[in-house]
Amino acid sequence: MFTIELTLKQTPVPLSVQKKEAGEADRLYASLVAALEATASTVLELTCDQQPHKKINVLSSEIAAVQIFEKTSTATASGRPPGFFALGGDQ
C-alpha cells in the first residue's frame, strides 16, 4: 500500500490517501507535483483505495508539500513515517 500525503498551507494536519498499485500512486504524485508547479489554481479530487468512500477535494494553490511512501511493517516509534519538517515563515 502506498500513501500520498499532502501538507497544506496554514494547516497543521496532513491529508492522505492510499493507493494499492505503485504505478497509480506515482501518477497521482506526479499530477500533484504538476499542480504545485502550475500558475493557475485548480480543485483536485483525490480518492483512496483503502477507504473507497473517502474523497478529498483540495485547492492546488493551498498545497505546501507532497510526499509518497510505501507502508511497510517497520514504522517509527510514533507509528508515523518520517515526513516533512518546516519552520514557519511569511510567504
Verbal overview:
The protein is α+β, with helices and mostly antiparallel strands. It has one domain (2-70). It is built from 1 helix and 5 strands, in the order E-E-H-E-E-E. It has one helix at 22-37, and strands at 2-8, 15-19, 43-47, 55-59, 63-70. The mean pLDDT is 84.
Number of separate strands: 5
What gap, in angstroms, lies between the N and C termini?
A: 34 Å
Find the structural class using helix and strand composition.
alpha+beta
Q: Spell out the helices and strands N to C.
A: EEHEEE
Could you give the topology of this structure?
Layout: E1 2-8, E2 15-19, H1 22-37, E3 43-47, E4 55-59, E5 63-70
Antiparallel strand pairs: 1-2, 1-5, 3-4
Tags for this entry?
single chain; about 90 residues; about 35% strand; globular
